[in-house]
Design goal:
- This protein has about 170 residues and is mainly alpha-helical.
- The protein has 2 domains: about 1-80, Rna Polymerase Sigma Factor, Chain: A, CATH 1.10.1740.10; about 90-168, Arc Repressor Mutant, subunit A (Orthogonal Bundle), CATH 1.10.10.10.
- The protein has helices spanning about 1-25, 30-45, 55-75, 95-110, 115-125, 130-135, 140-160.
- Helix 1 (about 1-25) packs across helix 2 and helix 3 crosses helix 6.
Amino acid sequence: MGHCEAFHELYVKYHRRLASFIARVNWRKEDIEEIINDTFMIVWQSAGEYRHASQVSTWIFGIAYRTALKSLRRQRRYTSNVRLEDAPEQSTDPMREIEMQDWLTRGLGQLPLDQRLTLRLGYQLGLRLEEIAAITEVPIGTVKTRRFHARSKLRRDLPTLGGGPQLF
């Protein structure tokens, strides 16, 4: 019975964080729940294979990342179903916040999925390069390259998306 209780605690501890992470890729609540459940099924079945090579959170997020990608491939939804939960700058003008959120969402939606997720894992979830590399199963150099290209594209495209002049 101890294993079931421990698993339940793990589920409760990570459910909200995983839901937030997955919602950045797929906004449909039923898909998010299905991906979380599939993730925890894999965690349950693979618990004996966990070798402490990374943090438990990195291992779980890696499973969730691969599960979400499989779900996207199955559903053929490589469109930008991305929601940005909070504008990075707080404002007293709600319309400005809505415009900022829309602007950033459109900018992030222009990025390829791997670049978009690299930025979200690093900047919104606060993961280190090593953790992002472990989750996405790519070398750290690839994570750095994805982040570089994503930031370059945002720097180039955000001004025009916001109606301003292009900087470069």
